[in-house]
Amino acid sequence: MAVVLGQNNYGKSRVRLVQVTRHKDRHDMKELDVAIQVQGDFTAAHTKGDNAKVLPTDTMKNTVYALAQGDPVVDPEAFALKLSAHFLDTQAHISEARVEVREHLWKRIAVNGKPHRHSFLSTGDERRVGIATRSRASVAVEGGIDGLLVLKTTGSAFAGYIKDRYTTLPETDDRIFSTVVASRWRYAIPDSDFGVLWREIRRITLETFAEHNSQSVQQTVYLTGKLVLDTFDAISEIRFSLPNKHCLLVNLAPLGLENHNEIFVPTDEPYGLIEATIKRT
Amino acid sequence: MAVVLGQNNYGKSRVRLVQVTRHKDRHDMKELDVAIQVQGDFTAAHTKGDNAKVLPTDTMKNTVYALAQGDPVVDPEAFALKLSAHFLDTQAHISEARVEVREHLWKRIAVNGKPHRHSFLSTGDERRVGIATRSRASVAVEGGIDGLLVLKTTGSAFAGYIKDRYTTLPETDDRIFSTVVASRWRYAIPDSDFGVLWREIRRITLETFAEHNSQSVQQTVYLTGKLVLDTFDAISEIRFSLPNKHCLLVNLAPLGLENHNEIFVPTDEPYGLIEATIKRT
Amino acid sequence: MAVVLGQNNYGKSRVRLVQVTRHKDRHDMKELDVAIQVQGDFTAAHTKGDNAKVLPTDTMKNTVYALAQGDPVVDPEAFALKLSAHFLDTQAHISEARVEVREHLWKRIAVNGKPHRHSFLSTGDERRVGIATRSRASVAVEGGIDGLLVLKTTGSAFAGYIKDRYTTLPETDDRIFSTVVASRWRYAIPDSDFGVLWREIRRITLETFAEHNSQSVQQTVYLTGKLVLDTFDAISEIRFSLPNKHCLLVNLAPLGLENHNEIFVPTDEPYGLIEATIKRT
Amino acid sequence: MAVVLGQNNYGKSRVRLVQVTRHKDRHDMKELDVAIQVQGDFTAAHTKGDNAKVLPTDTMKNTVYALAQGDPVVDPEAFALKLSAHFLDTQAHISEARVEVREHLWKRIAVNGKPHRHSFLSTGDERRVGIATRSRASVAVEGGIDGLLVLKTTGSAFAGYIKDRYTTLPETDDRIFSTVVASRWRYAIPDSDFGVLWREIRRITLETFAEHNSQSVQQTVYLTGKLVLDTFDAISEIRFSLPNKHCLLVNLAPLGLENHNEIFVPTDEPYGLIEATIKRT
């Protein structure tokens, strides 16, 4: 059997950008980081060291800055679409370009209760995500959330599960539920109102987490996805990847104390990981 | 010259705690992590392997949970004071206990515009800090902020500095200024209104950052400290440690484009680091 | 269109284990971390909150310890196979189990030039990886390397590539090439001699990196994969994911100095990322 | 009471450098990162925004590259001495310069059993450290080790300690002892043979860890320091900061299994932290 080149792709990751838009009465600011991956006819580069069809990843980085110039990024999805189109439009041998744009979220600093015109405060590790995967035949656009850390102190149970010889976990009808939401949704059409949908899906995610009387992470995930799809025709599918940030009840009995479900140790490892896609038939 | 034991201390770090307080109409929640270090008569442990005077760090960890039980933590400073007192009160050979309590900050999830009664959202990497350093003779209490990431798009200059043969940095009267505030302030008396002071120092820090027309990080740091000390007699000293999160203007000229002070690369390294203490005479 | 549950899976990640095997003349030690993901009939858990078919991830964690007990892990692949078999053998409704075992690498401390019988030194961030993906019909076994950080100071060029309006990168016939190797190979049959193959593939990877006169990361990747497949019939396919850890030549001209290809800045971001699969026809 | 500027310092951190020295038969390579902090007459910068005495941190960064050019770094300590001298020699208003140089450690890749002439492999997270703190009156030089991760499977006990009402830790005469050595030693004179001393102190640290029958981390720390000072007159003092990387015995009894001191969970938090200085009278 001969040895051949299979699936291959390359590009630039962690292209970071702060874009300032200087209005008369205020400045707007976006922080983004961009990852680009292309596929195409790169066999000669691999097998012969012939770079004639290789667009350097350094050029991809420059392209991010060039295409941002003079055209303020509003939605990560739209910037991902624009970048992916550029690579296919200018490079005939590229068959697919995948661009992922991650937005770091900032809000204005309040001074005397009013949002400041040019000063900002990071809102943490949460990212808004936009992804375009474009081939010669089609383009898929996804939105997403990463790093949304939440915790509820009640309204979460876990019971009725399988017990085998290695089971030691006690059933509970009242536990802490904490997770870091990572989600990706697919837009039915590539020119949706990305910003509105992101805000609404984020709102549904938070409100469902807060209000739902959860029997498991799985149930909450499914309900959230179902609500998103029931509410927005523009969304065709949503995926979740949720780590269970376990908060363990501390056993205070050996210390001569009772723990009335109040004192917990949050732990980072090991962690449960629950992943599901909710889609339309 | 004989070899001897010099300065030594030991303790437990990263003791993590989530404390839930279950009110009828709502739950309160705190996430803390605690670091304890003690000094005292530990020579025999070092030189003879005699542990008769060693309180295990595992016991220190248990003590954090025991002292939190039934007494909801409000201010990190107060919990640090309580823990440090416990170790000196119960261990005659301990001469000093330093306890640092870091609060991870959460806010309530809004549901239909109203704060939810038991569901929370992390506000990011910022930490509120309380430190008690207690000896047999005295106790010092500090408050602090870590991880407060801010950025302003104008109102910052850097010019008029020394030029030597290795200087390449161009002077600028309009640059981005971004930093991660770490500050520690010392309370004049150990029973101050910690929560109010933390909120007010944080407000002064943010407002000064936003409003001050900065000639350097040093000038902004000094002004912030001066405002804090001018405003609050209860604060005797404040220190800052500020990394300069450089945002570099991208040179678009080789791409045939102009950069009207709009496109920047944020960088993590190398970084300037500016540290200063502002105090009373 | 109705809303339905699509692809879903769950399990436990970062189950950490140190296993000590106490021989008369020496101790052996392994450090592993394990991630388990299962698929199967979990619709009711998602749609009804019915956990009757849910094996808790806590039980999966316990199972790792139980199956390690009394049976020292030698190869990560074999432990992954054993764990994946357990879940399919004991849970009729589980259709697929994927187990990834990562080995942290240690070597013995040398004392008077001889390997010590029970004391060890970490060799860094490199990991040996073994993965079993088992369904009712078949099992796939993969080996892998993560975190193998290498650098060569010459023997790497990058030239002859596409230039477009955004290209600024100069061609070079002598650059630093540094990367962190991540690779995964698929065994043709599930009972290969995993340890020998891991050592040999690692050796080929390092020697090819060192010796090959590279025209691009792509060319080095392909050659490495081809050599592995040409040498070992037991390997049916190998994938690489290589970040280009760029070392940029410092421009010393403004400082009145020449840089004879000697002074570089290593950078973490942005970074090129090159991925390819080499396989048999 | 007037508000005044107290202790202040500033500089550049994480200045990264790869230096290649191209010999005929082989290349040498060093990876370093450098942090510089200076003190001096910087009051006007803080209080008036007057930068006339401010050497930009960007210039400090350039100086690192300029002083490395043409003069291959051998010992971190020597490069720290050279850099610190430069700042005091060229800037009359700087009263103290502290330079910390961290060396990332690499070894040559073996090809056919022989060290390759220009290809290298990282040896992990361990760093060799050199620090010079230079004032107008004196200079202090320190060497150090960071990130040396070790583990022994026996030869470590912990018993005979204080028990109080919160103690739950069982005494043990045979536990795993794992730590990440961080140490700093002070040279009696600033022109010691830094490389030889670093290698020897590292050897003593590893061999003592391996061979010593430890009653506590404290005892091992003290013994290591004593051996270093007893062996080398050139070292006047050594400090250690050792986290206890706890490996907890897994309770297999609920799973119907025995754990013959073989199955452990390594944990990152909470962790004991033991710090001590060993010095001469």
Query: How would the global form of chain A be characterised?
Result: globular
CATH C-level category of the largest domain in chain A: Alpha Beta
Helix coverage percent of chain A: 10-25%
Q: How many E strands of chain A?
A: 11
Low-confidence stretches of chain A are none
**Please, how many helices of chain A?**
5
The overall pLDDT average of chain A reads 97
Largest sheet of chain A: 8 strands, antiparallel
Strand order of the largest sheet of chain A: 2-3-4-5-6-7-8-11
Rg of chain A (CA only): 23 Å
Order of helices and strands of chain A: EEEHHHEEEEHHEEEE
Helix/strand-derived class of chain A? alpha+beta
Assembly state (oligomeric): homotetramer
Give the CATH superfamily of the largest domain in chain A: Urate Oxidase
How is this structure best described in words?
The structure is a homotetramer of 281-residue chains. The first copy, chain A, has 5 helices and 11 strands. Chain A is an alpha+beta fold and 281 residues long. Chain A has 2 domains: 15-137, Urate Oxidase, CATH 3.10.270.10; 148-279, Roll (Urate Oxidase), CATH 3.10.270. In chain A, the strands form 2 sheets. An 8-stranded antiparallel sheet of chain A has the order 2-3-4-5-6-7-8-11. A two-stranded antiparallel sheet of chain A has the order 9-10. In chain A, helix 4 (194-211) packs antiparallel against helix 5. Chains in contact: A-B, A-C, A-D, B-C, B-D, C-D. Chains A and C meet through strand 1, helix 1, helix 2, helix 5 and strand 8 of A and strand 1, helix 1, helix 2, helix 5 and strand 8 of C. Strand 6 of chain C pairs antiparallel with strand 4 (114-135) of chain D, so a sheet runs across the interface.
